[in-house]
């Protein structure tokens, strides 16, 4: 089955700095890669995603890159703000099986 | 209007009891999921239904039984609760099996 590794497990940055979270996956059948943000006491919420036929996608301060050959993808947050503090999950999704495998999460803390 | 709702939000019960968690989505989605998030925040898929049909059944004890009376509802019944069942359970829905998932607010189950 799919295995997703996510690093780092915790990340602390100063407000205004950039934050990068990296994930690797094992199953080449995975073809959709969403990122979710989970705030305290809430369910995960999709913030950005990328499909396997695309190498990079950007949405304001958030960007995601995908390297299918190396089987890794990354989340980049620029100009971080305290409200970016949360747990971030990457996932690798196999659209044929209809199943997402999640990374173990990264706790991001943005210090004002 | 809440897109994916779960009841109850908190559930405290004793070992050996049977309990149910209900989930409803008003997004018109075809696919619904149950996830378990343990104390380390790891998010693991348990079940997935597509148009009321079970399509994913991970290695979950038989004490857990999902039921989908219609496309908008996916309930989770747990028999003979054990201490290790304590976790936050998330319901999610997706337009199809393919892409983004929308999570409910979670049900925190505590077994004493």
Concise overview:
Chain A has strands spanning 4-7, 10-14, 19-25, 32-38, 45-51, 56-59, 62-67, 72-77, 86-94, 99-102, 106-111. Chain A is mainly beta.
Largest sheet descriptor of chain B: 7 strands, mixed
Mean pLDDT of chain B: 94
* Amount of beta strand of chain B: over 45%
Q: What structural category characterises the helix and strand content of chain A?
A: mainly beta
**Unreliable spans of chain A:** none
Order of helices and strands of chain B: EEEEEEEEEEE
Determine the most extensive contact between two protein chains: A-B, 24 and 25 residues
Helix content of chain A: under 10%
Taken from the alpha-carbon principal axes, the silhouette of chain B is globular
Number of discrete helical segments of chain B: 0
Q: How much of the polypeptide of chain A forms β-strand, as a percent range?
A: over 45%
Outline the structure in words.
The complex is a heterodimer of chains A (about 110) and B (about 110). By secondary structure, chain A is an all-beta fold. Chain A is built from no helices and eleven strands. Chain A has strands spanning about 5, 10-15, 20-25, 30-40, 45-50, 55-60, 60-65, 70-75, 85-95, 100, 105-110. In chain A, the strands form two sheets. In chain A, strands 2, 4, 5, 9, 10 and 11 form a six-stranded mixed beta sheet that branches. In chain A, β7 (about 60-65) and β8 (about 70-75) form a beta hairpin. The mean pLDDT of chain A is about 95. By secondary structure, chain B is an all-beta fold. Chain B contains no helices and eleven strands. In chain B, strands 2, 4, 5, 6, 9, 10 and 11 form a seven-stranded mixed beta sheet that branches. Chain B starts with a strand and ends with a strand. The model of chain B has no long low-confidence stretch (mean pLDDT about 95). Chains A and B meet through β4, β5, β9 and β10 of A and β5 and β10 of B.
